[in-house]
Specification:
The protein is of the alpha/beta class. It is 37% helix and 18% strand. The protein folds into 2 domains: 70 residues, Winged helix-like DNA-binding domain superfamily/Winged helix DNA-binding domain (Arc Repressor Mutant, subunit A, Orthogonal Bundle); 111 residues, 3-Layer(aba) Sandwich (Rossmann fold), CATH 3.40.50. The strands form 2 sheets. A 7-stranded mixed sheet has the order 5-6-4-3-7-8-9. A two-stranded antiparallel ribbon has the order 1-2.
Length: 209
């Protein structure tokens, strides 16, 4: 199903709802209300109901949401109802940590290939993934991979993005603070830890909302 005119902020919150639902299910919650989710996430229940309303009937007023059904629906909304494969470019400290991270599976996500130019890393296996030389990035196209993770130095980010786009990647998660230029149809999500950390002083000064 294709959804139209969904606010970007709503899309950003859907993974939060999925994570909360998974965690509450693990605590034995068979049903959830917007108030429970709101208390758990520190969000207004009205906002949660509004977000869910964009995607049809996810629950019933006064009854709430069947937890497993809600998890299934959110996964379908996020296109996580089938396994999604990602390629990682850059196997330094950050890239290695990503390969060893065990939390992707709960969202049906898997890093299935990793590339680097450092010959000391090429051929090693980290988190069950064998590191290949970056010269072989073109082979990604034949592996059914449509998501790319960039964990390379800032000055190399654009070149890497260009290469993986040619290899069929349609969405990029970048840990480089540099702005990456791509065709409009390609979604780029940038994680800039320094920029996020720079927001904290604002909240520490008493601006909590």
């Amino acid at each position: 199903m294709r959804y139209h005119k969904i606010p970007e902020e709503t899309v950003r919150r859907m993974p939060l709802y999925l994570r909360a639902s998974l965690e509450l299910a693990g605590q034995g919650a068979d049903r959830l209300s917007s108030r429970q989710l709101g208390d758990y996430l520190g969000l207004n229940p009205w906002l949660i109901r509004k977000d869910f309303s964009y995607f049809g009937d996810l629950g019933r007023r006064g009854v709430g949401y069947d937890t497993q059904v809600l998890i299934s629906r959110i996964k379908r909304i996020l296109r996580l109802d089938v396994g999604r494969k990602a390629v990682l470019v850059g196997v330094g400290r950050l890239g290695s940590a990503l390969l060893e991270y065990g939390g992707f599976g709960r969202y049906s996500l898997q890093i299935v290939a990793a590339f680097d130019r450092d010959r000391k890393r090429v051929g090693t296996t980290i988190g069950g993934v064998r590191v290949e030389h970056a010269d072989g990035l073109a082979t990604v196209k034949s592996r059914g991979i449509d998501m790319g993770i960039i964990a390379v130095p800032e000055q190399a980010a654009q070149e890497v993005a260009n290469t993986i786009l040619k290899a069929g990647i349609q969405g990029i998660l970048s840990f480089s603070p540099r702005h990456i230029v791509t065709p409009r149809k390609v979604k780029v999500i940038t994680i800039d830890i320094a920029m996020d950390l720079a927001r904290l002083p604002y909240y520490l000064s008493g601006n909590r909302k």
